[in-house]
Description:
mainly beta; Fumarylacetoacetate hydrolase, domain 2; 2 domains; five-stranded mixed β-sheet; about 10% helix
Amino acid sequence: MKIVRYEAGGAPAWGVLDDGVVLAAEGTPFAGLRPTAREVGPLDDVALLAPVTPRTVMCVGRNYRSHAEEFGNAVPQEPLLFLKPSSAVVGPGADVVYPELSQRVDPEAELVLVIGRTARNVAAADAWSVIGGYTCGNDVTARDIQKADGQWTRGKGFDTFCPLGPWVDTEFDPADVGVSCTVDGERRQDGRTKDLIFPIPFLIEYITRFTTLEPGDVILTGTPEGVRPVERGNTMTVEVEGLGALTNRVVAET
């Protein structure tokens, strides 16, 4: 099932993507969502929102060896974790605001895990049972602020710095798929999930040993090499092979 969240009459609503058409749905994701026969419209004509509203946005840094090396960083011996505030989350087509405080903003294409049920102390062998689906994410980063601060809260946490979408696929196989980012049509990042340093089951066990994840929470699994800055006016597109494209425009702060 491909779950979407869209704007209907000024309010968010849930739907299911079926052969390019959004069908209205009843219920909520991971708790009995049921598609109806009512067509909302073709996907391209529907105003999509972020497909989840996470309480916790957990992110994994330097989870591709090539990305760690391109910035001259050591490959981590265990997952390097950080959080983004939920206020950073935006959906497909939303503007990403280039903050006046920064002189360098980078997009980072990532596969995103969406938690499907409450998860605490989950063994790696049981990790797949708590994942409700998968989507695309862009871990937008004010690189100069990240480096100057020595920790990542400000550099990663600006409003609009976590685009998610376009949908959540509940039956996706993430074992070996492409993860890419293009800027104004120029391919910059092009990695594969098989190259994750810390695989998905390991991440689920590691994270849930210290914190509880709830349905709708997300884990951004890391970004491949090729990270370069964007400018105001650029258009960023993150793609995870089989999960669609997440496109956002960079705009000046007003």
